[in-house]
Amino acid sequence: MSKSDKNGFTTGNLHSDRRDKPEHGVLHKAIHTSVAYSYEDARDLAKVFQGKMPGYNYGRQQNPTVNALQSRITRMEQGLTSTAFATGMAAIGSTMFALLRAGDHVISSAFLFGNTNSLFNTFRNFGIEVSFVDTTSVENVRAALQDNTRLVFTETIANPVTQVADLDAIGVLCQQRSLIYVVDNTMTSPWLFRPKTVNATFVVNSLTKYIGGHGNALGGMLTDTGLYDWTQFPNILELYKQGDPALWGTTQVRKKGLRDFGATLGPEAAHHLAVGSETLPMRMDRASDNAQKLAEFCEAHHNIKRVFFPGLSSHPQHERAKRLFKKPGAIMSIELADGVDCFDFLNKLSCVVTSSNLGDTRTLAIPVAHTIFYEMGAERRASMGIGDNLIRLSVGIEDIDDLLADFAYALA
Ligand SMILES: *Cc1c(COP(=O)(O)O)cnc(C)c1O
User: What is the residue with the minimal CA distance to atom 1 of ligand 1?
Assistant: First the structure.
């Protein structure tokens, strides 16, 4: 173990680029825009293409600025290796596309980011069966198992009703059945939770959210924890069964997913995301603490019917969230009392922005049934507990007194 590996989460991340032999002693990895790479000996280019020598061949597959970001996230997740994508959706879609085949079965949480839900329904058109189950209990996952089940997918804290998945018990089940276990860690980020501790095969992070943290760049990351035994997985192509079996899955994702599908993260975005990531722990702690205070305020307010936040003792998975996560995160939803118009409420807020993003430094609010979950239809929304007066909040790092005053005014 090198000296730098022993550094804490923040120190290690701050000095990550600098310690990787940077050009001119820079502290940030440069934004490398070259798409092509040259080699003095043409044989070296061939070796790089054949995977016999490390190196760069084409910008769709690798870029030094993006690689530096991959190292940062691998370190945060304590994983084996990471692969960056243009967005979080690209990370999820490319991974499934690379590893699944027609006739396979996937078990997914029924409480999903809306676009992930839409994507999984599209995979059904290609002969992949998907069962949507309530992952707050491992028993629902167990009951959905089939002989052709290959992969289990869940988020840590679901959006917008903040259900906390039975993460550790599902990890045990996946290990027993040699199933790929994909955990979308976007809501918690590696600062609050490391899915590797519950036996995840892959960790997905939408870098667009807390890791980038400022709403100024899109990106997604897939981290391979190194825990899965890829010799047990039937869909690895013979071509990629070379070298260390721990890397077979990631190799197939990089070739069939990143290279062939081509949703590559650009170097400029990688730079923004890397700089943003340096303050992840401070932002996440502050936003979580703000969310806790705001949730307690809202729970006591007569114009709010219900508050969904894992940090409240009224939350059904409060104890689980306390056990698994450093803090309960900064996503909460409020259901306004009957008769309170959600649009009027939103229009009265002044330092809260009505917006669909989350994980920004600013507090964002969105009426979910009318926007991000609109396309899903009323029936599916009802099954997910999403009412017409439900507002999702992504609590930011503002001064808490300003947030409380804003809510007090808009709710009066
Ligand atoms: C936003 C989000 C995604 C998708 O990430 P993008 O970077 O917007 O593509 C996936 N999962 C969760 C939980 C998200 O919040």
Answer: 206
